[in-house]
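Human: Not sure, check this?
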Amino acid sequence: MSTRHLDLGCGARPRNPYQREALHGVDIAAAPAFPGHELRLANVALEPIPYADGFFDSISAYDFLEHIPRILPTPDGRATRFPFVELMNEIWRVLRPDGLFYGYTPAFPHPSAFQDPTHVNILTRDSHIYFTRPDFKARMYGFRGDFSVVRVMFVKGGEFEYEPTEPAGLARRYRLGRRARRGELSHLVWEFRAHK
């Protein structure tokens, strides 16, 4: 069986950071077809990821998580739902056991987290504890998944200082340290492992 990767919010350019054999993408808008890649339309802020349980070996979300609302009223206005928590449940659901999730998003305190008016989900250095061992703080909001942290780190936006297939060697760590001291690190990288 071939390995499969899903890129959420892929637009016209789905990414495959783990170099899986089959690449799939999901986006809210129509995108051109790519030979050998499957693209599906879905608004994953409001509906499930349109794939079966345990379908993917890995999932990525580049500059996407910041667009998922944290809280919305239900259609009748009598209750609330938590789209970001629901999405994290869906990511866990469609990953295979030991599957990997890679998220890359602008984060607090850098101004890039706030300047785009469509950024509604501002993440911080410690936001991951709501979805990862041992805390699972989002359980109180309906999170059912089980992730452990592979890596959580800040990087400079636009340069993809850290990709999962490239280990962070001494030179890269030194460069990130210098950029952190100058306030240049704008994006947060989440890399989680799914446990089932």
Remarks:
- Residues 4-194 form a domain with the Rossmann fold fold (CATH 3.40.50.150).
